[in-house]
Batch of 4 targets.
Target 1
Amino acid sequence: MANGNRAGRVAALAGLTALLVAGAAGSAEAGAATPGALSVGDRLYPDLGNGGYDARSYDVSFDYRPEVTTMDASVTMRAVATQSMLRFSLDSAVRQVRSVLVDGRPAAFEVTGEKLVITPDRALARGREFTVAIGYVADRSLSPASPAWKLPPGIKNPFPVWQNTPDGFALLSQPDRAHVAFPSNDHPSDKATFTFRVTTPADVDAVASGTLTGKDRHGDRVTTVYRLAQPTPTDVVQIAVGRFTEVDQAGPHGLTVRSYVPDDRPDAAVGARRTLEQLVWLEGEIGRPFPYPTYGVLGVDSEYGGVALETATLPTFSAAFLHDPREAATQVHEMVHQYFGDTVAVRSWDDMWLSEGHAVYYQSLYQDHIGEKPFETGMKERYVDVNNQQLEQEGPVAHLNSASGVLSGSDNGGALTLYALRNLVGQNTFTRIEQTFYDTFRGRSASTQDYIAVAERVSGRDLAGFFQGWLYRATTPPMPGRPDWHAKPAPAN
């Protein structure tokens, strides 16, 4: 059934593309205007993303009512056309699209699979800024799995985007499910800023990525507004509703440190209070100030899919997770993502090692810092016992076998690549590579080749062979400086 659905979706998109192209050819008024592409051509997520424009900001509104799973919602995208466009698309898997306005004027629209195709009443000129206002219905009972995952028949989505709790919800959008919550250009290559407006009953709280900018009470309901002013990919924004206790700390150099834990799980505040020490340590280790003006952790009253997620400014964990002192290093893992993954996003999902590899590398340094496990011991275990097995299962670090592998398939090999690079060029040069890469691509998306170019420029060395071995081969290379380390072969099937 999965293959059949996939074939039908591809055929539908191909047919729609043909119609759009035919419409472009037949429009004398539009001149050189053509339809925007229906994807960005990501190898692992071939239907994801949209061409013809650069999204600059999203303004997302939810009206939460606890007695129903549906929410009246809207999103306004501000974008700049990168070509002259007759039509364009957004990724969308919301329950119902009710209306679409382009620059305030009604526009024709069609929903095909997970695409919302929009035809404005006039072509959009290249370089023009425009807005798209979409009224829609979100449904927290619907969490369709990614089409790219090709799950076997009868297997449900293992990571529902709507993580419902007894008194609200949180989002789990990575890697490509943000457009189940709001129509968007849902690919990390197109970062944007965000405003979130969530209306709730007065006895329920709304929290989101970014800085709290206002609360407006009207009768027995409250609209809470958050602003995320730094460009961030769609897959790591958070919007959550529940009854939360706020945990405030005085952060370094004016940084607001504000966490939220469920009212009925005060024990989760133990983990929230670890945040300040971890921030100070990580800023010193990376040598750069924290990239956002606010930070904290979010504990939710659910298992949260059994994972933690690097949602921007507000990484998300289950409340039970935050209570467990053994998970302190994982908190740092998600904090590292604020630098690598959120502020410096990946250009394509093949580049995910740049995010996960950095998170595991610095997490391992923190484990050494707190006396949990020596850094070298951790790296040796990953090299000797784990890496060939993960390569066998997931494929090469920067060319994974499957779309689902982006969640964890490159973490071990990515961390070892960074460790091997450090051993090869020395700690001082490695630190300069890391800082130069971060400084160069802060607020942007970066590819594997971007990192390699920075490493070669800073080190003054040809590193093509090194990175080829660590990122694109299916077996573990020798570890520089550790001739006595021998990676175990993957178990025979």
Note: The chain has three domains: 1-61+68-149, 188-343, 346-472.
Target 2
Amino acid sequence: MALEVTASIVLDEAEIEESFVRASGPGGQNVNKLSTAVQLRLDVRNSPSLPEGLKLRLVALAGRRLTRDGVLVISAQRFRTQEQNRQDARERLLELLKAAAVVPVRRRATRPTLGSKLRRLEGKARRSGIKADRRGRPGTDED
């Protein structure tokens, strides 16, 4: 089975490593007995399914979730069942991959228009006039 990131990018399930660990927090007596929290691991740097551009953006987005070896680790322990935590972790992985799949639009430098330059200068002149009126000019008493 495969995880579809976009129409052109499909991640192979074999690349995702799952391990179940004990969760912290509430859960009653089961919290000490059952391993309900899930850790998903995806080797981003060595993944054959992911294009290079996506890998670079994913590394930038992942932050602390990425190990030194380039492995993305997603932990989920929000729910009390293994299956719900597993689904939650997969959804979060998919969200992260979809965010990294979006190629940012490069900004094209533009020059200010003549109208915008004139408006800016008019605003500066107006502001300058207001400040000049506030200053007490020597020789003028307004009492």
Note: The beta strands are 2-4, 10-12, 16-21, 37-43, 71-76.
Target 3
Amino acid sequence: MVIKQLNKENCTEILELTHHLNTETTLEVLKERQMEMFEFGNYICFGGYQENTLVAISSGWLTVRLYSGRQLEVDNVIISPNCQSQGVGTEFLQVLEEWAKTNKCKTVELNTYVQNGRSHKFYFNQGYEILGFHFQKNIS
């Protein structure tokens, strides 16, 4: 697997994978949000390629937290459905963790949907722990 940092020019192929995790959101809305994410200075989009095909993506933000210090917060970790359960996710996450170490991060953190039990098992197997609850209030 080859890992690359993606940019706005990769938006079409990013959206193909993103839509697998966000089926209720239209491609137009996903594109608008993805473009806005690229506007933020600490946003990074990682892409994992096998034979020039994008098979894994993850959003990432460099942050500093009082409880953990400098960290890479990953989000939207998505593996192509035809590559799941083949070690691609493990390899992709290991490369992201190495990137975080190289960039002086102390931790890697992430959120996963409550109903996505398959991802919970995966992250537990990768050594991640549940630290708390993620709350949201819709104010729009």
Note: The radius of gyration is 15 Å.
Target 4
Amino acid sequence: MLNAVGDEGVPVREIAEAIGRQLNVPARSLPAAEYEGMLVHLLGTDMPASSTITQELLGWKPTHAGLIEDIEQGHYFM
């Protein structure tokens, strides 16, 4: 499987905090017991993605902003 990710190991909390800054809403932890469904399992699972094999196999190098920097640019929140 090939992954085309520029960042590796970005914690969900950092993603939530970046989105919260754009929306002027503080990010905070919530107990999983208050929620049901796939989202709890998805966000509570460590699923690191790496593009090392993709880069080596295809000679590709990420050139765009990383995930947090991309969120911070604000174009998702217009």
Note: The chain has a mean pLDDT of 87.
